[in-house]
Amino acid sequence: MAAMEAAADAMLAAASRAFSSAFAIAIQIQGCAICLVLALGWAAASIVRKRAIVNMRRKQVDGNSFAFLCDDIDELEHSVQESLPRVSVIMPLKGFGEHNLQNWRTQITSLYGGPLEFLFVVESKDDPAYHAVSRLIAEYKDNLEAKVIVAGFSTTCSQKIHNQLVGVEKMHKNTKYVLFLDDDVRLHPGTIGALTKEMEKNPEIFIQTGYPLDLPSGSLGSYCIYEYHMPCSMGFATGGKTFFLWGGCMMMHADDFREDRYGVVSGLRDGGYSDDMTLAAIAGQHKRLISSPPVAVFPHPLASDLSFSRYWNYLRKQTFVLESYVSKVNWMMNRALFTSHCYLSWGFVWPYIMALVHVLTTLRAPYSKIVKDASDSSWGLYLVGLLFICTLIELVSMWNLTKVEIQLCNMLSPEGPKVSLDSYNWGLVFIAVLVDNFLYPISAFRSHFSQSINWSGIRYYLRDGKISKIERENSSKYTDLGGKHLYGKRTYPPNKSLLGYLSRTLAQWHQPKKYDV
Fold first, then answer.
1. Domain range summary for the chain, segments of one domain joined by +
2. Which single residue of 150, 159, 348, 408 has CA 20 to 30 Å from 183?
3. 3-state SS track over 109-163
4. CA–CA distance from 310 to each of 47, 187, 302 (Å)?
5. Helical ranges in 413-457 per DSSP H
6. pLDDT digits (tens, 9 = 90+) for 23-80
7. Are 82 and 510 in contact (CB under 8 A)?
8. Under CATH, what is the fold of the domain 7-483?
9. Are 161 and 272 in contact (CB under 8 A)?
10. What is the mean pLDDT of residues 290-315?
11. Tell me, what's the pLDDT at 475?
12. Membrane-spanning regions, if any (predicted)?
């Protein structure tokens, strides 16, 4: 026993000395710098979101009680509303879960005043989503232009992209803008109007996008997903031009698809795996503008039973997108993202491992001479203190951005379910930060060497950056992050509100006969 204790002390002392070398100190300082850069990015993002809140409050003080819908109340005049362009909302569906019905209701009860159609696209009638959304459409049939489309199985691209392209083929002939939404997006009543207004204001916009605000359910897996999305959220909180694109919300010109401008249809159809990465690459290649308005942030409730294994599968899907590409330049960009993200992830984690060694050395020093000598000759506690301060600054900045985005979401959906910051466990957030950054490089390397991924019971194989083979395994019980069942049915309760009434009223002003194409 004494021999084992002496060996352990010797190893701890050696590790302490190694982590006090000039190279190790540089690694630890780099980790602190990463924390501060993240904190600065989140602080900048919170300023953009806060500006939208201040602007909305100013409009309310000036007498515009509908500031959550539009900047100028005169925009709600009938003459203005009836001149708005037609929008087709296309939602590829897969499975049915605990949050889907509420999300779909927020989408179809949009207070957009122009002609609006909803196309729900499933791969087959066997999908539980088919029956669930059909019942929902029947409930709103008198005030809603919507239909469910059966797309069939994909053969040359991912099922999601296949469903999107089939939806584009079926959209109304007079549609000016097409809005692609994931079925786990919870829209605000004025979202479609805000996106359309920006498209009308600046015709040079190629794609309008937004980003989700994850609402963790309490499991470590859900907090890992929240942590994964938070650094990305900086790129969407620009208040305008951005280089990032989220496939859960993309508004585009319908004619871009009708005429296959810039190869958007062929690029997606011919081996496309990720809709947002493919379209972002096309936008970069042709120097087209991607924009993200400050109000485009959406509550994203995560499944109450989101397990760690499902988080791992989600992370695998996210890293797998870097293996798909549409051009040589796109491949080079993905390799750069792969390398930098892996380096920064482990560059972030290693200082905490070193800090743990320094703390253990300090605690053990009074009981072991060899450990005490190592502790006295190191800068360990100073580095631990520096890392603690930088981590605290980072977490406070993350907390502040989350608070601001929650406030913005509650203002944009005044009758929707209120989101609260009190539900967040910041101890789990810190653990999730370490876990997610540690696992990201592992997932990325596995995706690189496997060149295949199972997502929602479908296995995709890549070759030269494009899907080359599709196998339907039907082995998954759940899909996505919302706890959706791929098989089976659920019931849902009715829901009525003032916003629903206003939605029906606006729809009755102008909308053509249902299914008129």
1. 7-483
2. 408
3. CCCCCCCEEEEEEECCCCCHHHHHHHHHHHHCHHHCCEEEEECCCCCCCCHHHHH
4. 33, 25, 11
5. 426-450
6. 999 999 999 999 999 999 999 999 999 999 999 999 999 888 889 988 888 888 888 8
7. yes
8. Spore Coat Polysaccharide Biosynthesis Protein SpsA; Chain A (3.90.550)
9. yes
10. 91
11. 53
12. 22-48, 342-361, 381-402
Do 86 and 510 touch, CB atoms closer than 8 A? Answer: no
Structure tokens at 484: 């959706």
Handedness of CA 378, 382, 384, 390 (dihedral sign): negative
The helix (H) or strand (E) run that includes residue 486 is none
Per-residue confidence band for 397, with pLDDT thresholds at 50, 70 and 90? very high
Q: Could you give phi then psi for residue 264, rounded to 5 degrees? A: -65, -40
Helix (H, G, I), strand (E, B) or coil at 197: helix
Higher pLDDT, 144 or 226: 226
Q: Confidence band (pLDDT; 50, 70, 90) for 120?
A: very high
Q: Which position has the token pair 């239909």?
A: 147
Measure the CA–CA gap between 234 and 141, rounded to whole angstroms. Answer: 40
Q: Six-digit token pair at 168?
A: 């584009």
- Positive or negative, the CA dihedral 112, 116, 122, 127 is positive
Task: Let me know: does 484 contact 97? Beta carbons within 8 Å.
Answer: yes
Residue 392 reports pLDDT greater than 60: yes
Q: What is the distance between the alpha carbons of residues 423 and 15, in angstroms, rounded to a whole number?
A: 39
Helix (H) or strand (E) holding 214: strand 211-215
Instruction: Name the token pair of 434.
Output: 């370490």
- Is the predicted pLDDT of residue 493 greater than 70, yes or no? no
Q: Residue 294 and residue 214: Cα distance in Å, rounded?
A: 17
Q: Which two tokens stand for residue 469?
A: 């083979």
Q: What are phi and psi of 178, to 5 degrees?
A: -115, 130
Query: Rounded CA gap, 38 and 218, in Å?
Result: 24
Torsion region of 480: left, alpha or beta (phi above 0 gives left; psi -120 to 50 gives alpha): left
The answer to whether residue 208 scores a pLDDT higher than 90 is yes
Better-scored residue on pLDDT, 433 or 381:
433
Is residue 457 over pLDDT 90? no
CA distance 224 to 431: 8
Q: What is the pLDDT of residue 474?
A: 62
Q: How many residues does the chain have?
A: 517
